Amino acid sequence: CLEHPNEIDGIRAPYLFDGPLREAVHRLKYRGWKAAAPVLGGLMADYLEDRKIPGQALVPVPLHPRRLRGRGYNQSHLLAKETGKMLDIPVRQDLLVRTKDSPPQVESTSSEERRANVAGIFQASPEARGTSVILVDDVTTTGSTLFACAETLKDAGAESVWGLVLAMDS
Question: HSE-up of 74 (CA within 13 Å, CB side)?
Answer without folding.
Answer: 18
